[in-house]
Amino acid sequence: AQSVAQPEDQVNVAEGNPLTVKCTYSVSGNPYLFWYVQYPNRGLQFLLKYITGDNLVKGSYGFEAEFNKSQTSFHLKKPSALVSDSALYFCAVRDIRAGNNRKLIWGLGTSLAVNP
Amino acid sequence: DAGVIQSPRHEVTEMGQEVTLRCKPISGHDYLFWYRQTMMRGLELLIYFNNNVPIDDSGMPEDRFSAKMPNASFSTLKIQPSEPRDSAVYFCASSYHQETQYFGPGTRLLVL
Questions:
Q1: Angle CA B47–B80–B82, to nearest 5
Q2: What is the layout of strands, in order, in the sheet containing B74-79?
Q3: How much is the average pLDDT of B63-78?
């Protein structure tokens, strides 16, 4: 069965320090992987995705994520955190072999708090 | 493009009343998704459409929930009768082939 795990409910980091938000997944075939961010009282915003190609994916607002097939992980990273990065982050996966099934499997979210 | 548009943004109603949530997807998108978000259960996919046809409604909680997409630019999610446990934020999202789903601002529903 397909699944996504975000092992940390909350991540705290000081402004200016690097941040990592973890995501691991389980699919039968090759994955499509996504990161979204949700600011308070807002909808989810797309950050980046991995479909194929380079394992390091760069996205919006200086975020990047590294696809690691052997570890089935897709951790979100940023070299220098900003207070404005404080938000809820969601990882999602879809099995490529699902064909036209566009259903994403979502993690439960990780709350990121960047302290000034 | 204006993005995905949802209305109303906030809805307060009494138990037993009918609630209708509305969504206008991004023009040209051929997939439309309805989600529900709560603290307890996180983000849940309720139903999604492709070219106005419902593809997967396995997430619809029960018969009180129904969704329609009469044309490519409009969809509704209806709850009848509403119950307090339906209180949540309901999101609509749309996508076109490339997999990326674009979300609306959500409707915050409170059923008293």
A1: 95
A2: B5-7, B19-24, B74-79, B65-71
A3: 96
Cα B54 to Cα A103: distance, rounded to the nearest angstrom: 12
The string of pLDDT tens digits covering residues A28-63 is 888 899 999 999 888 999 999 998 888 999 999 999
* Tokens 């997967």 belong to residue: B56
Residue-wise pLDDT tens digits, B22-43:
999 999 999 999 999 998 888 9
* Interface residues of chain A, partner chain B, Cβ below 8 Å: 32, 34, 36, 42-46, 49, 51, 90, 94, 100-104, 106, 108-109
Of A46, A90, A100, the CB nearest to B102: A46
Torsion of CA A97, A99, A101, A107, to 10 degrees: 30
